[in-house]
Design a protein that fits this description.
seven-stranded mixed sheet, globular
């Protein structure tokens, strides 16, 4: 009898403990009726003001990580990329339908943490009320695009006509979970895992051998465990990101969670000052869902399956990274400046900075994305494409001319198509140590390292072996 009673008391104690843990993050007692962001602002105005200045809201920021610009604010809103090209203007928000009435696109703001307005530079009441707190902080929150009374569009909870249901969702406040982050970061670029390649929906709760950091069978880390900075400023910057949200608080595997010599094997630890962790610990990426490796906007076709006109895309799965030196800084092709090309004639949209002779550089793993974009014949500027409307009408020339006028204020342009290349850092899908690369994966004839591209005449191990004889 005493044993049964003890078991009951333990169960009751655990239940109370779980309730207490949930209450720590719950807004059950704070939100009686959710009336949009203004409900949050009653207690969290300072938080909203800090978020207003972040990259998640502004989609641009300071650029100390770029070698070809100084003190210039840049980002998604102001750059031309090789995926959907640029989100501003008509690209931002609104429904595009085909002849059958099927919705083809809703605008790039679908992944913006706002309710529909393009972010401004001055804090106002309207700007703060445009922040969508729930998209990052409420479990189970879903939103969709709805017309406004003035003929515009805005993002609203799908429960906006169900006040009781909306109240219930608004009370489920927590720090952002993996699922919340993946809503946007896995879907960006036009399809699941299309853009990043190493941020798949599987990361919601992956097997341990898929990602040892995020697996509940591994370290069970959330994105914010590594990326959360101060005042809504995210830590970490990939090579292809123009802006840096936390320039004084950089993120690195070594020196934080792991020491500079974590292997306890001298031969391996001797690599860490020249080889970054991910080069060995992410043997492949796009392990479940294929990723976009090349997007050709000059080769247009109609997709019966999708019911729209679209670009030609090359998808690949289980991709072996490309390896290059990276010192934390990058070259990025700036809008309104003549394009820079490599020896193959490709426009270098993003290149990591660094070399074998650079003591601050280490060998990193990259996804190298290829593209084909329009370039002005006279100015040699990259031109974005008005992609949203293009999906319905399929006239790529019209889409380019509309974007040139919107982005640069130029009419009657002449342009040609050029190949592009972008280096994108690979940092997720870290395998357990037993699945990391072994010595002979790199140090053998036909291994995965292109030693000449890295600045060596041959495999450096050959020279070490000769010197030891």
């Amino acid at each position: 009898m005493r044993v049964h009673m003890l078991a009951v008391l333990v169960i009751i104690g655990l239940a109370a403990s779980f309730r207490g843990a949930a209450a720590e993050y719950s807004h059950e007692d704070h939100i009686k009726e959710y009336k949009g962001t203004r409900t949050c602002l009653k207690c969290h105005r300072e938080d909203a003001e800090s978020f207003f200045h972040s990259q998640h809201y502004q989609w641009q920021g300071v650029t100390p990580g770029l070698v070809n610009t100084e003190d210039e604010r840049l980002g998604k809103l102001s750059m031309v990329n090789d995926f959907c090209t640029n989100p501003s203007g008509s690209q931002w928000i609104g429904e595009v339908r085909n002849e059958e009435g099927k919705v083809l696109a809703k605008g790039c703001s679908a992944c913006h943490a706002g309710l529909g307005k393009i972010p401004g530079q001055q804090i106002t009441k309207a700007e703060l009320e445009n922040i969508d707190c729930l998209i990052c902080h409420a479990s189970g929150y879903r939103r969709d695009l709805y017309p406004t009374e003035d003929g515009g569009w805005e993002w609203r909870s799908i429960l906006w006509k169900n006040q009781e249901g909306l109240n219930s969702i608004a009370r489920r406040i927590s720090m952002p979970t993996r699922t919340m982050c993946l809503r946007c970061h896995s879907a960006s670029g036009g399809g699941p895992n299309y853009k990043r390649g190493d941020i798949e929906y599987t990361l919601k709760d992956p097997p341990r051998d898929f990602d040892v950091h995020m697996s509940s069978e591994g370290h069970n880390l959330d994105c914010v465990d590594c990326h959360a900075g101060d005042a809504h400023r995210v830590r970490g910057r990939g090579a292809d990101l123009a802006a840096t949200d936390s320039p004084d608080n950089p993120l690195s595997c070594s020196g934080e969670c792991h020491s500079e010599t974590p292997h306890q094997i001298a031969a391996i630890d001797s690599h860490t000052d020249r080889v970054y962790c991910t080069a060995c610990h992410i043997p492949t990426f796009a392990k479940d869902e294929p990723t976009d490796m090349r997007r050709d906007w000059s080769d247009i076709h109609y997709s019966t399956e999708k019911g729209k006109f679209t670009y030609t895309v090359e998808l690949e799965k289980d991709v072996v990274p490309v390896y290059a030196w990276f010192n934390g800084k990058s070259f990025a092709q700036l809008p309104g400046t003549p394009v820079r090309r490599n020896d193959k004639g490709e426009i270098t949209i993003v290149l990591p900075d660094g070399s074998r002779d650079d003591p601050d550089a280490r060998i990193h793993a990259f996804k190298v994305h290829g593209g084909r974009l329009p370039v002005l014949d006279d100015k040699q500027w990259l031109v974005p494409i008005a992609t949203e409307e293009f999906y319905a009408h399929g006239d790529i020339d019209k889409a380019i001319r509309e974007a040139a006028e919107m982005f640069y204020g130029l009419e009657d342009i002449e342009y040609s198509w050029s190949d592009t290349i972008r280096y994108m850092g690979i940092y997720h899908e870290v395998t357990p140590k037993e699945d990391a690369l072994q010595c002979l994966d790199c140090h053998r004839p036909g291994g995965r390292m292109d030693w000449q591209a890295l600045g060596y005449e041959r495999d450096p191990l050959e020279d070490r072996l000769k010197a030891s004889r």
